[in-house]
Specification:
Length: about 130
């Protein structure tokens, strides 16, 4: 019986210590992030609080920006208001939940929603 009590206390202490380590190392929640240098913010509006932004080099610069929230309708409306048009005709405003592509001002923009975030992938349109 004595052996079980000591083992239980040891395990309980390990959980407490591991919990403190996680709490101490995790730090505050991540705040908003700035758009990457060169991102065409005037031509491609981004709606929401930016959580992640990066430039990807694939022979030319392209950008991936993730914002908090699932509001692909607001994202689509902002892109339309900025003069971008859907690549496929008749795309509903909520198509970004699955994935939608827009073009205009020399850029191609894909939007999609996943795990509570909206991701924009922006690339210069070849030949535009």
């Amino acid at each position: 019986m004595d052996r079980t009590e000591r083992g239980g206390a040891g395990i309980g202490a390990a959980f407490v210590v591991s919990g403190l380590l996680v709490a101490g190392c995790s730090g505050p929640a991540a705040g908003p992030v700035a758009l990457p240098a060169g991102f065409p913010a005037q031509q491609v509006p981004v709606v929401g609080e930016i959580r992640k932004a990066e430039t990807i080099e694939v022979g030319h610069a392209m950008w991936r920006v993730t914002v908090e929230g699932r509001d692909t309708v607001a994202a689509a409306r902002a892109l339309l208001a900025a003069g971008l048009v859907p690549v496929a005709p008749g795309v509903p405003l909520d198509a970004g939940r699955i994935g939608a592509v827009y073009r205009g001002h020399g850029f191609t923009v894909g939007i999609s929603s996943n795990d509570g975030d909206v991701t924009y992938v922006v690339s210069p349109t070849p030949g535009a």
